[in-house]
UniProtKB/TrEMBL annotation:
Residue ranges annotated for the Phosphoribosyl-AMP cyclohydrolase domain, each copy included: 46-119
Catalytic activity: 1-(5-phospho-beta-D-ribosyl)-ATP + H2O = 1-(5-phospho-beta-D-ribosyl)-5'-AMP + diphosphate + H(+); 1-(5-phospho-beta-D-ribosyl)-5'-AMP + H2O = 1-(5-phospho-beta-D-ribosyl)-5-[(5-phospho-beta-D-ribosylamino)methylideneamino]imidazole-4-carboxamide
Molecular-function GO terms, alphabetical: phosphoribosyl-AMP cyclohydrolase activity; phosphoribosyl-ATP diphosphatase activity
The protein, known as: Histidine biosynthesis bifunctional protein HisIE
Cited CDD domains: NTP-PPase_HisIE_like (cd11534)
Enzyme Commission code(s) on record: 3.5.4.19, 3.6.1.31
Gene: hisIE
């Protein structure tokens, strides 16, 4: 399928670019959420935002382009990792406020190396809980009986496994193969994005960016073969409490 045929199919024959743009309900920032789904498996891979320019770039290149709200720049999915997404179709919902992008994925969609960003499965929800007036639910993600920091150990082990096995197409593999300079660049970028999210007073974005930063810091520790336990021991040493007689 040629680029022109592809655009013709997506824009539904008689629908012009101007009409397509007019039919989409862009938010106050000129953005619309785009859900990316695998054409073959039908698995939902990720959600990101497009504006008019990134939508046009996606149609022109036949690969997904998005707008980063934190970095305030366009990003081509897979432009650095190689995990590009070849668009097979694009549609919008009945309200025109969400895009659905069907793709052939050339590798994992998630920066963690997972196929899909939607891997946090909710097995049980307490639907009996009630909140009075303006009371907000707790944001603590783990049960009190669980180790709050178990995920760090699991993530550290996963990163070590990636370093050892170097599975093809994994983002972590890409970082290790590019080496220390690339890893340091990502740590710097995620630090900057964390600062921007905090400055914007957006806790949802801050949670996301801090998670990215912690992940890349763990990759850096693995690259330097410095165990996380050594860092925790250093923190413990610095904050050692006075002993009681």
């Amino acid at each position: 399928m040629s680029g022109s045929d592809f655009q013709h199919e997506i824009i539904h024959q008689s629908l012009s670019w101007e009409q397509l743009v007019a039919n989409i309900k862009w938010d106050t920032d000129g953005l619309v959420p785009a859900i990316v789904q695998d054409q073959d498996s039908k698995q939902v891979l990720m959600m990101a935002y497009m504006n008019q320019e990134s939508l046009k770039r996606s149609l022109d290149s036949q690969e997904t382009w998005f707008w980063s709200r934190s970095r305030q720049e366009y990003w081509h999915k897979g432009g650095t990792s190689g995990n590009t997404q070849q668009i097979t179709s694009l549609s919008y919902d009945c309200d025109g406020d969400t895009l659905l992008v069907m793709v052939h994925a050339n590798g994992p969609a998630c920066h963690t190396g997972r196929i899909s960003c939607f891997y946090n499965e909710v097995n049980e929800v307490d639907n009996q809980s009630t909140f009075n007036n303006n009371e907000q639910p707790s944001t603590t993600p783990l049960d009190s009986g669980k180790d709050r920091f178990a995920i760090l150990a699991e993530l550290e082990q996963m990163i070590a496994d990636r370093d050892r096995d170097r599975p093809e197409g994994a983002y972590t593999t890409y970082l290790f193969e590019k080496g220390i300079d690339k890893i340091l660049k990502k740590v710097g970028e995620e630090t900057a994005e964390t600062i921007i999210a905090a400055k914007n007073q957006d806790n949802d974005e801050l949670r996301y960016e801090v998670s990215d930063l912690i992940y890349h810091l763990l990759v850096l520790l693995q690259e330097r073969k410095l165990p996380l336990d050594d860092v925790l021991a250093e923190l413990d040493r610095r904050h050692e409490r006075p002993r009681k007689d």
